[in-house]
Amino acid sequence: MMQLNNLDSELAHELGDFPEDDLDVVFTPKECRTLQPSMPEDGVELDSHVRDCVQTYLRDWLIVNRKNQGNSDTCNLKNKGSRKDFHKRLQKQTFESETLDSGEASFQQTGPRHVPTLHEDTSRTAPASCDFDLRSLQPDPRLENLLRHVSAEEFERQNEEARRTNRHAELLALYPSVDEEDAVEIRPVPDRPKEHLGNRILVKLQSLKFDIEIEPLFACIALYDIKERKKISENFHCDLNPDSLRGFLRSHTPSIDPSTQARSAVFSVTYPSSDIYLVIKIEKVLQQGEIGDCAEPYMVLKESEAGKTKEKIEKLKAQAESFCQRLGKYRMPFAWIPISLTNFFNVSTLEREIPETEGLNGKGSTSDKKATLLQARRLSERSLSSEDNYPSSNFKTISLTLSTFFKQEGDRLSDEDLFKFLADFKRSSSLQRRIKTLPGTLKLEISPAPENLGYCLTPELLPVKPFPENRSRPHKEILEFPIREVYVPHTIYRNLLYVYPQRLNFANRPASARNITIKIQFMCGEDPSCAMPVIFGKSSGPEFVQEIYTAITYHNKSPDFYEEVKIKLPAKLTEKHHLLFTFYHISCQPKQGASVETVVGYSWLPILLNDRLQTGHYCLPVALDKLPFHYSIHSPEKVPSQTPPIKWVEGHKGVFNIEVQAVSSVHTQDNHLEKFFTLCHSLESQVTFPIRLMDQKITEATLEHELKLSIICLNSSRLEPLVLFLHLVLDKLFQLAVQPMVIAGQTANFSQFAFESVVAIVNSLHNSKDLSKDQHGRNCLLASYVYYVFRLPDPQREVAKLGAGGSAILSESRYYTFGRTSAVAVGSKLLQSRVISCSNPDITVTQAATDEEVKNIMSSKPVDHSSSRMSFYIEGTNDMPSVCANPRPSNKKHFHEELALQMVVSTGMVRETVFKYAWFFFELLIKSMAQYVHNIEKQDNPRRSRFSDRFKDDITTIVSVVTSEIAALLVKPQKESEQAEKINISLAFFLYDLLSLMDRGFVFNLIKHYCNQLSNKLNSLSTLISMRLEFLRILCSHEHYLNLNLFFMTSASAPASPSPSLSSQNSSSCSSFQDQKIAGMFDLSSEYRQQHFLTGLLFTELSAALDADSEGISKVQKKAVSAILSLLSSHDLDPRCSKKEVKIKIAALYLPLVGIILDSLPQLHDFTISDARSGKGRTGNPEEEQESAGAINQNVALAIAGNQFSLRSSGISLASLPYRQSATLGPDTTRNLLICFLWIMKNADQNLIQKWIADLPSMQLNRILDLLFICVSCFEYKGKQSSDKVSTQALQKSRDVKARLEEALLRGEGARGEMMKRCRIPAGNDRSAGLNENLRWRKEQTHWRQANERQDKTKAELDQEALISGNLATEANLIILDMQENIIQASFAAECRDNLLGGVLKVLVNSLGCDQSTTYLTHCFATLRALIAKFGDFLFEEEVEQCADLCQRVLHHCSSSIDVTRTQACATLYLLMRYSFSSTSNFARVKMQVTMSLASLVGKSPEFNEEFLRRSLRTILAYAEEDVDMQATPFPLQVEELLCNLNSILSDTVKMREFQEDPEMLMDLMYRIAKGYQTSPDLRLTWLQNMAEKHTKRKCYTEAAMCLVHAAALVAEYLSMLEDHSYLPVGSVSFQNISSNVLEESAVSDDVLSPDEDGICSGRYFSESGLVGLLEQAAELFSTGGLYETVNEVYKIVIPILEAHRDFRKLTLTHSKLQKAFDSIINKGQKRMFGTYFRVGFYGSKFGDLDEQEFVYKEPAITKLPEISHRLEGFYGQCFGEDAVEVIKDSAPVDKSKLDPNKAYIQITFVEPYFDEYEMKDRVTYFEKNFNLCRFMYTTPFTMDGRPRGELSEQYKRNTILTTMHAFPYIKTRINIIQKEEFILTPIEVAIEDMRKKTQELTAATNQEPPDAKMLQMVLQGSVGATVNQGPLEVAQVFLAEIPADPKLYRHHNKLRLCFKEFIMRCGEAVDKNKRLITADQREYQQELKKNYGKLKENLRPMIERKIPELYNAVVKVHSTRESFHNHSFKKYDAQSSQST
């Protein structure tokens, strides 16, 4: 090979030779929605708080990136960047199962079919009689070099070359990614902080017209929530007037800005509900008159009318024009219209409001990360999400046209009134009755607002991107006023004030003021010119105006207002700013010389109070005269007395109500925050003391105290403002933590307070129910703060406050963080005995090479830095060199050091919280360290000396404390332990990040301490492993994981280790040493763990998890395996690892995994059992899969039987190998583990693997083969149609599906319930989970998902999935094939092949039985041929069973529809025959095996294609004819004979195909075929099994069991011929107790057959284990069918055999099954349902053979007559056409002459089992009366004149008894009737039978235990009820009234008399019994019964007492002609479900 030394160093270099720094600090500009960011107006000197806010909103994000993340595994793995298109490079694999779908159609003919007939002569005649001449066919092309002589070695080499070409390099790219649930290493990138937008709705107003157009009208729109009684949006003003009318106002509009011409608005709703209304208010220009008067014309006039109306309209128009010119700037209310938005918000979005946190995250389910994930999503959607929360599903664009408007009522204009109206409106539209309406039309369109709506303006009128210039009308975004808090921090500058004048009371004002309007202005001084243009204008006017007038209510002295005045607040507010209100009376009529406006009063409101923005409700007094100077400094309520005094309305009382609200990202509107910010700013900038704060004054002396107070109180502020200003608050606190403050000459230290405040804030944010968390439980707001916003506090100048002491510069040693000695209290050993000292001279800084770094890891002791602490600052001078290479100014604390220190020294609650939410502090630490490293540019310095030792000690302490915290929490109840999981994950991420910043040796030590510390503290193994696993999984996801593990140091095939210092042994090339070493490479040795630190830890956890057997371990195992799998996937997807030699190295790193997997072999889930497959006929849906799991598979039969007699069997019998037994792994875990194994085998160095195999003991090799066997079944291709079935194995859980699922969960019940249910099912905690998990789980998981996902996936996606899974199956199987070749070569070199070959064959045969691609089959057949050529003799001699299997599989492929496969299979089959011919004995056996295989194939596969198989047979014939070497031998002739035989078997198939639809006919045919093979036991056995399989599919378990019993009897016959063991059954006689039919199997006389003859009875079932296997399966099926008694009989035969073999394990199992069976008998006894029987007769020539045949059909229990009748009629209707089939309704004998010859008649009668009286003695139990039945009876009532029913005296009955050929249950469900007897009962006999039956019923009801009153009363009522038609009394009167004339009837008369006697007695008992049972309310009923009983008794007495004297004289001898009948003494068994036709 190459010189590995160089190679290694190159590799190391290439993979980034321990890249120095991974972290990169980048500034990314904040994305801004608007073209220009929102800013305060220019040219204003801002105060420091506003400046800080604006700066926070504008500055870039500071993000710490990983430089290598781009090529790291995690990134690729998660984004699947590389995976997106990779399927395009894949080859399409062809699978037969998929080509079949198209081919199937040819068999299903439709339309009327001819019913095929069966001929009896199916027994085999001479083999030469082929029904079909093979030679007439054209053979397939042959493989040209098949017969060429090549040495075996050469052959193998060619095969290998072929296999190596065209392989897929990345195995795991094909493997579906690991379930996201486990992927803890994905740290979700938090969402960027952005402005909050709710559900956005676009409302476009299209037109507003009334019936007459006479004046301009103005619309104003807003949203209202009536439940919360709150206006939830600002107003949108809109002008829809035509230009002609707009012209009326020209004089009043100086300019029109485009922004005021908008006609569409985007509303935002955060909390949608059904109570939201869009209210449109319409105003008009003020005119004279009440609203009603002004609206009058609108109600009565119509534009369209001519004549007078037209004149009126013109007049009105002129009038309006004059009003507009005169009063154009005043408005009056006119009309309004509400629109409910219920339909727009679909209910599902409403449901999201409901906080379902408890449901999802409360009790019990939380351990499920999914739940937390969901909850996080749900919460974030509730409070934050903008995009995905559209109620989009039923929210389409809706156009509305509204035609009625409500007139405004002048006295009801306030919001209160509006809410009342709306509430009424919602209840009914009763509103319309009370309020006048106006006709008109308003058209508008409501739709969800698109993502980026072009040409849109924000509420501040800033243009939003994209903003095309040329549009005429913009859209406007309307600001929302959410009903509840929205917790989203501010990110843009917004500073708006809304003023709502509400009510004015001038009722008592002296002068007249009626039409009142208020002029509202925002003033910056008292001069009229100081009005600022900051008020937003309305529609069609300027953007900003200086004043606004409210609408006027005509002649109202105390009007309500609904105006909303929106003001853009100046950034800098002073005392002078105030709102000025001027009240005017407007004269509507023009009077000569009078002005329009008359001032009637003034009022004002200062904007600031104590430097704070004033908001809220105010009731202001109104001044009558002009206001005095300096009025604005005071509030109007508190104006000091003036001279001259101000005149007030109502003597200074408040008469004007007003509300002021601010929406501002500058003004906090919270006292605590306000105080904190003010004090901080007073520190930062020069201010004059004392400062005024609210109502207190703060001097310089109290500043420090007050600031500390305000820091502590921060957390008590309301949550909403705290969140809104979160970024600024945290920035300020961090600033305080590191910045020394000098206040009044003293250095103040706030760091502890600041830190504690941060901790408190973090705590309250996490605890708030309203804030969302991500899946690791991190508060989203804090996460995005750390990720985007946080940056190191600016090292500001130290500001010295000149004041006391005057000295500005202090000596430097003045401050340090409060004595570190207090840290000792932490009690951590690391901190004790450390003195604060000056810098320690002992520490020398050496340049540590990476090697050394690594060496430290190896040494087990922690690196001892030094015993003493570095001091916190350098005493006195500044120039003393610090330990860090460069000196640093002493007065600068480093943030990371300060933070670490605070974490270490915190105590009590603070400490608890710090560790609870450690993630936040860890991320802060990392981000600040990264910035620190970035700032000091210390990249050149070795990592070791980047950070001070003191800081390292702090980190060590922190890690140690956190670890013990985790351990402590884990022992507590669930909630706490979940907390621990989260802390554990944060700690892992912290160390992961430290690996990129600090000395790696140091970090590795921390990891080691963590692991040790946890194991010392925890005793629950599963928790411990689980914790450490998640921890390691995160660390291993590091992008330099491979380098950290020194993967290039593996001694893979290195002749000499590249770096002697590292490698523990110096390898020599001495071979024995080499061998030891190679074997060692596959074990997890301590050297390995030292060299490859992280991987070693991971493997240790894995093997511990697999070894463990404690509660809940299966989850942990799954975790462990998926951790390793995700690592391997990441290597496969990492472009750095794509080179082959790199892969070899990496694979070598994972070799110990092979050892671990082999050790866990017995725990693997055995896919072979759970997917028991029936030939190839697997179907797509899981339900059927489940049934076929019960079916018999030759492979599995023995695995079930456990096959303990021969060591090697086809199922894996692991019991024989000495393994440890542990909990079985679930199918997913197993599959993941196996794919890891295959990955290593694929990528490892093949030479190495061969050497390893060559040295393995055969036991280990067998293990490997067993493992490969499981692999084959595990990676079987599941096909496109069932790709959802694959997904149940947690395969295809791609992210989008997950999101969709969650979406569904959030929306509705369907899946949520399902999901929640799943959370409650413990996922395989029980031991047996392994087996059931696959079956039970599969249903559970997909019941809902499938239906959903199938529809969701497009065809393309499904194709792509199928393409990928096809390639995966192919690649996996090829790797397995490579391994087998390796084993063959390595072991045969070592000559230990004896038992290995069988193992290899077993795997090959298994793989042929799976659905494989043609690619794989080609290679597999090639390998097989090589094997046959090389080890032919051995194969045929030793591996008989394997051979039989092989024949079947190869034949199966011979019938393939794909040419390539057929060609390969024929060649292989021919070679098989050819090589077996060389020793004659074997050829006979191979012939037999091929014949049996074909028989079984034909019987099992419904979609089996005989046409292709015939072609294959022809091809084999062609080979035989062309084979030159063989021409001289009898071989070609024998081949031909065999092929003819096979051909005739095929003919049966054709017949079977015809009967595919008719199960009974099909079974008859199979039955006959089996009978035809009576002389060939092997084939008969095969057909019996085929029948069993068919029955099982139809759920006829009893019949299936019977087939197996027959098969077992057959085997027993031959075994007893071969050997005479006392414990074996003596042939079929021993089986009589199970079924009397078994005797059919007794062997044909010896001369016909002797079992010794070659090739006969050589099948695997002809052995003791085969017999046991068959019987055990039969017992299982009997038990499924409910025949538990038979189970016992079956085991009676099995037990002696097991005892003879001393197989006690099996005996235990058997007896436990028996116990179950007996338990079931006790519990279910009478409740079991056995079959229901019907007689079916076929009449009509159309039926062919069936004509005039009668059968008894056995149908499932409780089948009603109409059901079977419908089934048969339907089936034959399809065959002959529906008109041609008729069902005969009665059961009378059929007269054939009366039937229509062109029709087919079916007669169906319900029959009941019939027993003679003597039989009833033996048939005691319910079971016995339902088992082994061959006689049945039905009854036909008739009268002599042909009617079925008549009077009592003429009613006869015909009883028909049928006898069948065999007893039920049999091996088929219908049996021919061979005998029919009829008896006729005379009317009196009918009466006797009826009375007996009644008496029996009475007796039964009376004696029932426990008594059943209802039943008893029912029977009594029928017996003694007064008016029972044809009741007992009537019977007595007809038959007993007189003694009959005919002496023959004397005896019957007497019998009936005695019956009545007994009957009356029983009635008496019943009445007494009833008396004891009744309740008080039934007393009357009882009296009635008793009375009726008395009457009946009276009436019957004379008849009962009259005896026939002749009978007692014995005078007359009676000669009865019907003697025979009497002897028969009828006894009819009444089935409980007695039904009559």
Spans where pLDDT lies below 50 across 5 or more residues:
1-7, 12-17, 70-83, 101-131, 347-394, 797-890, 1050-1073, 1170-1221, 1282-1351, 1645-1649, 2016-2037
Q: Mean of the pLDDT scores? A: 76
Calculate the terminal CA-CA distance, rounded to whole Å: 88 Å
| Count of strand segments | 37
Q: How much helical structure, as a percent, in the residues?
A: 40-55%
Could you tell me the radius of gyration in angstroms? 48 Å
Can you summarize the main beta sheet? 12 strands, mixed
Structural class: alpha+beta
Instruction: Write down the overall geometry.
Output: globular
Oligomer: single chain
The number of distinct helices, counting runs of at least 4 residues, comes to 68
Can you offer a commentary on this structure?
With 2037 residues, the chain is an alpha+beta fold. 46% of the residues lie in helices and 12% in strands. The strands form nine sheets. Strands 3, 4, 5, 6, 7, 8, 9, 10, 11, 12, 13 and 14 form a twelve-stranded mixed β-sheet that branches. Helix 20 runs parallel beside helix 24, helix 41 packs parallel to helix 47 and helix 49 runs antiparallel to helix 50. The protein is globular and about 140 Å long. The chain starts with a helix and ends in a 13-residue tail after the last helix. 43% of the residues are buried.
